[in-house]
From TrEMBL, chain A:
Superkingdom in the source lineage: Eukaryota
Cofactor: how bound: Binds 1 [4Fe-4S] cluster.
UniProt similarity note: Belongs to the ferredoxin thioredoxin reductase beta subunit family.
Catalytic center residues: 53
Assembly information from the UniProt record: Heterodimer of subunit A (variable subunit) and subunit B (catalytic subunit). Heterodimeric FTR forms a complex with ferredoxin and thioredoxin.
Disulphide connectivity of cysteines: 53-83
Enzyme Commission number(s) of this protein: 1.8.7.2
Keyword set, alphabetical order: 4Fe-4S, Disulfide bond, Iron, Iron-sulfur, Metal-binding, Oxidoreductase, Redox-active center
Functional summary from the UniProt entry: Catalytic subunit of the ferredoxin-thioredoxin reductase (FTR), which catalyzes the two-electron reduction of thioredoxins by the electrons provided by reduced ferredoxin.
Protein's name in the database: Ferredoxin-thioredoxin reductase catalytic chain, chloroplastic
From TrEMBL, chain B:
Record's keyword annotation contains Phosphoprotein: no
Organism annotation: Selaginella moellendorffii (Spikemoss)
Name of the featured protein: Ferredoxin thioredoxin reductase alpha chain domain-containing protein
SUPFAM superfamilies: Electron transport accessory proteins
Family the entry assigns: Belongs to the ferredoxin thioredoxin reductase alpha subunit family.
Keywords on record: Oxidoreductase
The keyword Oxidoreductase is annotated on this UniProt entry: yes
Phylogenetic lineage: Eukaryota, Viridiplantae, Streptophyta, Embryophyta, Tracheophyta
Function: Variable subunit of the ferredoxin-thioredoxin reductase (FTR), which catalyzes the two-electron reduction of thioredoxins by the electrons provided by reduced ferredoxin.
GO terms under biological process: photosynthesis
Length: 113, 86
């Protein structure tokens, strides 16, 4: 389980970055919540928010090299977020929110593992 | 032949982007099409300190864009099928 400090850090980062990039959270915010917790988990274990939606052979090497550290290169340069954390308005799955509360994250991930 | 040419691209290769390719990180230009632009490969991201990494846009390329009469330097990452070596 990621620390509440890291979850809060990644929650705030996600809100700021969505605003800055003109992107929106998924209409289903349990998707958003799971990704934010995954980022927080990597922040705790690797020291960097490595994208939680990919498979890696060597996580520490990836976190040090940085291509997949959130916001990853494909997101920064192309607004492509396959985690569905940051969605452009035209995306069918984009909701209307650029905010998500700590309670939302807690409630929407409570029933998982 | 095109695939072989692209695969031969390495650090220092001059390349041209086969268009279109929209990027969103050009300062003061929310959406910019790199199609047709020429650049130089600065790095090919395949490993870090001997460990294989999984970057899927491994060709880190520098461009000198001409925007409103000014030169703007930009780094963008490309896949090997998105450019041709010139």
């Amino acid at each position: 389980e990621p620390s509440s400090k890291s979850i809060e850090n990644m929650r705030k980062f996600s809100e700021q970055y969505a605003r800055r990039s003109g992107t929106y959270f998924c209409a289903d915010k349990s998707v958003t919540s799971v990704v934010i917790k995954g980022l927080a988990e990597h922040k705790d274990t690797l020291g960097a928010p490595l994208c939680p939606c990919r498979h890696y052979d060597d996580k520490p090497a990836e976190a040090s090299q940085g291509f997949w550290n959130c916001p990853c290169v494909p997101m920064r340069e192309r607004k492509e977020c396959h985690c569905m954390l940051f969605l452009t308005p035209e995306n069918d799955f984009a909701g209307k929110d650029q905010t998500i509360s700590a309670d939302e994250i807690k409630d929407l991930t409570a029933s998982l593992g | 032949a095109a695939a072989a040419a692209a695969a031969a691209a390495g650090v220092g290769s001059r390349i041209r982007v086969k268009g279109p390719l929209k990027v969103f990180h050009v300062p003061k230009n929310p959406e910019f099409d790199l199609g047709g632009q020429e650049g130089e490969v600065k790095e090919v991201l395949t490993s870090w300190k001997g460990k294989i990494i999984s970057a899927n846009l491994p060709y880190k390329t520098q461009f000198a864009l001409s925007i409103d009469g000014k030169e703007v330097k930009l780094i963008a990452h490309l896949r090997e099928d998105e450019f041709e070596v010139i």
